[in-house]
Structure formats: structure tokens, C-alpha cells
Amino acid sequence: MLRYILKRLLIMVITLWIIVTLTFVLMVTIPGSPFNSEQSSNETVQANLERHYNLDKPYHIQYLLYIKSILTFDFGPSISQPNQGVNDLLGRGFPISFELGIVTIIVAVISGIILGILAALRHNRIMDYLAMGVAVLGISIPNFILATLLIQKLAVDREWFPVATWQGPEYMVLPIIALATGPMAIIARLTRSTMLDVLTQDYIKMARAKGLSPWKIIFKHALRNALMPVITIMGTLLAGILTGTFVIEKIFAIPGMGKYFVESINHRDYPVIMGTTVFYSAFLIIMLFLVDIAYGILDPRIKLHGKDGD
Amino acid sequence: MGKDNILQVKDLHVTFSTYGGTVKAVRGVHLHLKKRETLAIVGESGCGKSVTSNAIMRLIPNPPGKITKGQILFKGTDLTKVSEKKMRSIRGVDISMIFQDPMTALNPTLTIGTQLTEGLRQHHKNISRQNAKEKALEMMEIVEIPNAMERFKQYPHQFSGGMRQRIVIAMALICEPELLIADEPTTALDVTIQAQILELFERIQEKTGISIILITHDLGVVAKIADRIAVMYAGKIVETGTKRDIFYHPQHPYTKGLLHSVPRLDLEGETLEPIEGTPPDLFSPPKGCPFTARCPYAMEVCNKVFPVHTKLTKSHEVNCWLQDERAKQTLAEVAK
Ligand SMILES: Nc1ncnc2c1ncn2[C@@H]1O[C@H](COP(=O)(O)OP(=O)(O)O)[C@@H](O)[C@H]1O
Ligand SMILES: [Mg+2]
């Protein structure tokens, strides 16, 4: 187990390094610079600024400076907002994005599993068709369209919820519905199909033959096994929700990390791009790692070994 | 027959509604079983053995399955009539069942200990964790699992097929039921393990006095431990008798066919011949004897009317026109 974790940590570091390198290559190859907008057209001012941010140095030096900033976790000041450090932006944006993401995941997982179980238990009956109808809609409607629809119908026409920003629980409802519906639908469909499969297994029949209550059979025997595939796709869903937050934060004007990330790319704000990329990637990689650990804990047949073929 | 039967099945009919039509899987099964008795139900696969045993446990999935007719009297109570809640208190406590494949009958995500004790804890609400564990360890000893203490904490994948079947047996017996239904309990195991499991059944029966219904498609398996044998074909019991009756005086051509298709030590040199042909389609089973199409001795009447029940001796009964003098008369009646 320890060996497995150490091995995974090493792989995580290498993955992160590859991401950082690719980001750097992309940054220096896309045209444009932080300073070629009209307000700093003065050549000497621009040269001074470039020197200040080390942009006049050869690429390999710049690359090493970035690596150093990552290792010390100090990305320096933002270029477009020089009075803000990148760390300050992350510190302000992350809690909001994290809240949005975590609540979305919880909502998506719980409602998706419940919907999937109901559909499986009422297989080929109205509840099943209803749940799967909702799921198909949820999968086929992109979150940004759902978001605009929700704003129009529930915030503008009805004024039940605030239109945008992030100031309290009622502000969370619409963005979370918009972001959670897709993953919920995927989880619901997966739970239903694996649940249907599991319910025909011999150990379920055996559990019934033991005289266990339906409640115990579903939650103790069936669900545990039916959730394995759901856990497997959690990684992909997490990545989807994470990228979804960029769009949803933009639409609802939520001051999370996504906002800084998108803006930093528009402004070629290199330190912020690097800071947010590293942060997002590290976060996702760690989450994927936790998903794998959870998988190993839930399924005793999976041994987390350091070596293959152990 | 009569009062000393622990189980009596009368005229049981089970059907399944499918998209292709209605499958008449069990079509009028009669069975009876005494205390301490082992009844083997034998027949080719697809003849309705599992459906019969699931019906006794009321474990037929509905839909598509349904018990359409008949009675299942367990110690006088008709199980086809009791509520699902009452049935749950019977399953595992009075009647237990074990299934063919021990590799899939245990939940891979729960420990052996959890799975062994959960039946006890379900049915004896106030049993302590410790007492349940002690009882489970005792059961593991009875089914001869070494290192019970350690094994208790392990998961199914850490057990071999034979060991798993022992666990399943322990699980089925932990609440001390009076009837055990074993649906092909050794089919998935190798021959040596098969013999061990069958011996285990015998020893348990000696110790506890449990009645056993042993379902198998292999007459070789029942030769050792069955007291009586019921031969099943296309949803009906076609011959029943003591082990002696069936092995030494088989009367139904199907029973004879089955006997010819198993290797026997006492008939050395005889060649094994499988029964030619296949069982009839249960969507629209034939009106007469379902074995007619495969029977070398089929008569005109066999095609038209299902054979009457003929009692040959006190223990030996058969449904075959060859055994009944009423054949001619019946044919004449049908012809009119
Ligand atoms: N759930 C079901 N749906 C439709 N038909 C079924 C179902 N279960 C069993 N049957 C049918 O009932 C018949 C008897 O099956 P079964 O009792 O399993 O045979 P076996 O004697 O091999 O145990 C078979 O023809 C099978 O197709
Ligand atoms: Mg069967």
C-alpha cells in the first residue's frame, strides 16, 4: 500500500511537470504579449516592463524561473493587476470555486444514485421511463444553455433566485443545478444499468434466500457493487465539473478561479496562467488519486500494489 | 403421504410471460418429503428443476414469473398464500437454499463473517455481535473449514470453489432450518470436491435431522445420498421412487435413458448413450406425453393424452402409458 502510494506520488509529480512544460510551450508560442495593448505603446516602457517580468530573458531561463516559482509556490505579482499577487488571486478564488465544485459533486452523486436506484427497482415502469427521460435531457443539454435557461426562467421571469454573483446560499442554487445536471444524468444512467445487472447476480438471490429485508438487500448487497463503475467514472466527471466551472463562473459572474483563469489567458498574464494551471492540475491529479484509493477500499479484490503482477 | 410430510407440493404450475409468449416452465408438479429424508429431483437442464425449487422459496421473479396454480404445503402452511413478510421470516429460518455456483453466490465486497452472520442477525434481532460470531465459527467448524477464526475476516476471493460452497452451506444452515434445497450444489465443482461436499451433506443430515431436496441433472450424484428420486421432464414429474426403484427397476423410458447416459460401475462394458433429440418447447408443450417424440416405445395414445398416474408399488409411481392397462381404453375414448 505504502509502496503504491509512493509510486503514484512520483507519477503525479511527473504528470504535473509535463503539464507545466506544455503550458509554458503554449504560452510562448501563442502570439501576443501582456503589454502590446495601446496604453503601453511606448517602446522603452515596454522594454522596462519586459525586463521587470523577466520576459526579455531567453526561453530556457524563463522556463527555469517558472519551475522555481512552482517549487517555491510563489508565482509573483500578476501582470495585468500588478498590485495583486498570483497567490492572493488563488487564495480568493479557490474557496469559491471549491465550494461550487464540491456542492455540485455532492448534489450530482446523491441525486444521480437515487434516480438510478429508483429506475432500476421500477425497471420498465413509469418511474424508470421518467428517470431516464430526465437523464437523457440532462446529458444532451450543455450546461451553458441550461444556465441561461435557468436564469431566464427562474431569475428574470420569476425572480425566485438572484441572477448572478455569489453572496449566499440562494445564489448557489442556479449555478449548481446548471453544473450538476449533466454529471447527475450520467451517474443515474450508470447506476441504473449496473444496478439492473447486480440485481440478477446469484449473491442477491442468496441474500433473498436468507430472508434479508429488501432494504438490506439493496443497500448492503446491491448498491455497494453497483457503485464500483460509478467510482471509476468519478475521475472523468470531476474533470468535467472542473472545466464546467470556468463557463458557469463566467455566466453567473462568480468570482472564482475560473474567472481569473479565463481572464489571464485573454490578457496573456503569464504568471496567473501558470499559477492557475498548476493549481487546477494538481487539484485534479490529487482527486483522481483519491478516487483510486476509494476504489481499492470499496472493492477488496483490488489490491493496491507498488509492483505490477504482485 | 399424510401428516408426517414436512413438505408437500400439489399440482404446482409456474409460468413466465415473455415477449415470445408464455413459458409453461412447471406444469403440475407433485412432491412430498419427510423429515430426515433426501429427495433428489433429476432431469435434463431446462426441465424446470430450478423453477420448482425457487417456487418453494417463493423466489420466482415476478414479473415475468408467476405461480398460477397449486399448493406448497410446508408443515401444513400453504406457502403460495402467505404474505411476503411472513415468507421472509421463513426463508433462511425454516427453509434454506443453496445455489449452483459458489463462485457467484457470495458477495465479493463483504467479508465471509458478515455474510455468515447477517442471516442470524436478521432473524434474531437481539443476538449480540459476539454470539453471532461464535455461532458462525461453530458452523464453519461443522462444514470443516480450517482456521475459522482467521477465515472469518477474509473475503470470498480468498477462498477456493469447494471452500466457498462450504461457506454457502454454513450460511444456509446457520439458523437451523428444517429443509434445505440444494440446486445443483456440486455441478460447478471438480469430482473429488463433489464427493466431499456430498459426504458433508450426509454428515449434517445425520447430526441435525434436516430434510434435503437435492437438485441435479446427474444421476451419478444422487446414487450416493438420495433416499428417493423424482425424475422430471418438461415441467412434470414423470417417475418417482426410492433410489432402489429408480436404479434397479426404472419404468419410464426417459428414466432408462438417463440411466444409460451416466457411467456406472456395476454395468461395466456397457456403452454410454445420450438420449436422442431435445426436450419439447415449453411455449406450447405437447398435449400428450412430452417424451413421445424421443421415446422408442411411443404408442398412438402417448401423442394424444398425458399418461395417467400409475402406482406400481407403495413407493414407486410413474406416468407412462406403457405401465397402465388403461391405455387402450383411453385411446378408444379419445377417438370417439
Ligand atoms: N425468468 C425466466 N423467464 C423466462 N423463462 C424462464 C425464466 N426462468 C426459467 N425459465 C424457463 O423455465 C424453464 C425451466 O428452467 P429451469 O427450472 O431453470 O431448468 P433447470 O431444470 O435446468 O433448472 C426453462 O425452459 C427456462 O427457459
Ligand atoms: Mg437449474
Automatic annotation (TrEMBL), chain A:
GO terms for cellular component: plasma membrane
Pfam families registered for this protein in UniProt: BPD_transp_1, BPD_transp_1_N
Main location: membrane
Topological category with respect to the lipid bilayer: Multi-pass membrane protein
Subcellular location(s) per record: Cell membrane
Domain ABC transmembrane type-1: 94-291
Gene3D superfamilies found in the cross-reference section: MetI-like (1.10.3720.10)
InterPro entries xref list: BPD_transp_1_N, MetI-like, MetI-like_sf
Annotated keywords: Cell membrane, Membrane, Transmembrane, Transmembrane helix, Transport
Transmembrane segments: 9-30, 100-122, 129-151, 171-190, 226-248, 278-298
PROSITE patterns assigned: ABC_TM1
GO BP: transmembrane transport
PANTHER family in the cross-refs: DIPEPTIDE TRANSPORT SYSTEM PERMEASE PROTEIN DPPB-RELATED (PTHR43163)
Family membership: Belongs to the binding-protein-dependent transport system permease family.
Protein name: ABC transporter permease
From TrEMBL, chain B:
Membrane topology classification: Peripheral membrane protein
Family of this protein: Belongs to the ABC transporter superfamily.
Subcellular location: Cell membrane
GO CC terms in record: plasma membrane
GO biological process: peptide transport
Main location per the UniProt record: membrane
The species this protein was found in: Cerasibacillus terrae
Domain annotation ABC transporter: ranges: 7-259
Name of protein: ABC transporter ATP-binding protein
GO molecular function ontology, one term from the record: ATP hydrolysis activity
